[in-house]
Amino acid sequence: MAKEFFPELKKIKFEGKDSKNPMAFHYYDENKVIMGKTMKDWLRFAMAWWHTLCAEGADQFGGGTKTFPWTDADPLQMAKNKVDAGFEFMQKLGIPYFCFHDVDLISEGSNVAEYEKNMKAIVAYIKEKQKETGAKLLWSTANVFGNKRYMNGASTNPDFDVVARAIVQIENAIDAGATKLTVEIKRGGITFIRITDDGSGIERDDIRNAFKSHATSKIRTEEDLLGIGTLGFRGEALASIAAVSKVDVLTCTAEDDIGTVYKIEGSEEVLLDDAGCPKGTTIIVRDIFYNTPARMKFLKKDVTEGNSVAGVVDRIALSHPEISIRFIRDDKQVLVTKGDGKLSGTIYSVFGKDFSNTLVSTSYELDGIGVDGFVSLPVGARANRSMQFFFLNGRLVKSVTAQAALEQAYKNSIMVGKFPSCVLSITTPLNFVDVNVHPAKTEVRFENEKRVFDAVYYATKMAIDEKDKPNKLDLSKMDLKTEASNPFVKESSKSYEQTTITELPKRKENFWATELPPQPKAEVPKREAPVPYKRQQEVKPTVVAPPNQEPVEVVPDYRVIGEAFDTYIIVEMDGKILLIDKHAAHERMLFEKLKAEASREASLEGVKSQVLLAPVAVTLSKEEYSVLLQNTDILRDAGFDIGDFGDGTVVVREVPVMLIDDDVKALVEEMAGYLLTSQDPTPEKLDWIYHNTACRAAIKGGDKTTAIELDKFVNQLLSNPDIRYCPHGRPVLIEMSRSELEKQFGRTL
Questions:
Q1: Judging by DSSP bridges, how do beta strands 324-329 and 180-186 pair with one another?
Q2: Is residue 80 within 8 Å of residue 1, measured between CB atoms?
Q3: What is the pTM of this model?
């Protein structure tokens, strides 16, 4: 029978706000119904093991000041006493959930085998208490920060390239037949990374060979090279990891009663022994580059490395929706997929609702090439290709062929400079593709590129043609019967007798002459032709000249004649005809305005920005997300206030004033794509942002413009003789002299 640690206390009850009992609930009534639910359902409390049962009151000034009645025993009995006390505490307070770190339950022991043994024993005891009480585990995790051994980090990324080391561990877990996969990192993977799967495990006799260079279980014969269906197969990853770090492996096969623990440090074996562990494999890497510290400087910032790992996990999840993947980052679960094989649910988990809503499904097969997945509707086109994902036989690939086929299917459906998104899984016979082109295994060659092109093209084309049909007016399904009504007759006096016209009356000859009485001829005022707007001479802009100098006229005399195609302004000036591209000219003027405002940063003015009425959330790829957050200072200088919304999404709060009515989401996507690939220095990055901001804010060709607006526009343009080319390098105006014009008409030679 379990010992009672709080015998003087009974179950805490609700007694109301007027109660003087300190051991009663004054406001929390678990049975009170609020908005259709009880307070117990609204407030689902959980007991934190470490705070309630482990915190001894220690701080930086001294040791603990609390003593607990369950500590005077051997480690296992002490752990059981804590369990008894914890469950008694939860029952008397009515707390339905609890959570813990592993070493909060029981001492971890002197080695891995002892740790596993202790944990197995105490977990079994807790399960018995759960059956007795009905208490449920909210969550549990591992404490890899409390022990002094972790003063410089628990472990770290398995190679100096975080992404490479993360992905090879994940790949090996998947190849082992795992249905569940957990990836956990801290500080972007620089101090801790652990991969756990429930796969087939590793035979003890194979563990040593797994860490030898170029040793692989994936390739057994020469013929296997022609049909590779696994992810990892080169036998390089584990050997490279072990050479520069301390590695722990816990593994157990389905046939083994006892698992195996294997430790290797700097390619030197330290331990090979029995261990209690579940089926599958856990790989932990510690003290990366402990023997090659010079390579530590090549690691990037925590945020950058973490987002790179997150990007890898995203792609693995998308390529294998049948595997439940959990990603924990700095003790926070940021991704979990169901593993039910449904790609739509996985896409939603990875990228969220906004991106998912732009996609339509497709499934197509052509000559043995299968294409399944999702493509975006034309309205979901983006400023770059960052959201195009192609998977070949379960492996992420970069295929120029598939990319070209995808974009060809959208020809004449999306704007130039925009790109569709997709998550497409391509299935081919294994001998149809060569994955040995590059060590990264992302570049592939097909036996027949055209077959792949056609399959992707038709799969995409049929999907968007089916889902993106224009609305049509079908007159055959409309009821064209109408009822004549007199607006001067009250509703109550109307007759609702229905009449149906079965035949239209034949038109009579000279109908209008015979049926209508002659009418007097009305005088219709004659409409005068529009007169080109001419600026008044007396308002010529001038600048104040220095003393003893004549005033300088900024703008010569001109006359705005009109506009052609709502795009080109026609101006007469100084015996010449000017044709002005209003978009190009306006773009350049806005560009110069942004640069001028930015140059005033020293006076605390800078680029004028406007707070958005409703902040705009933008979902990006993890790489774009990372680089955008790294460049928030640059973006702030350009008038953008962009913050972190979490898990691949940023939130835009402020934009330059001129962009208030513009497509903010598309511009942010475009900036993220540019910053991801750009190696330009900061000034050139700012110029690029100013340029694209001005381009989006500028008046577009085809937009209607009044005569007064045209005159004001021309006045501003001609006031600045330096504006002759847009930021793209195109001319903003073309001149034609009167003599050249007369030559064209043959008036002069």
A1: parallel
A2: no
A3: 0.54
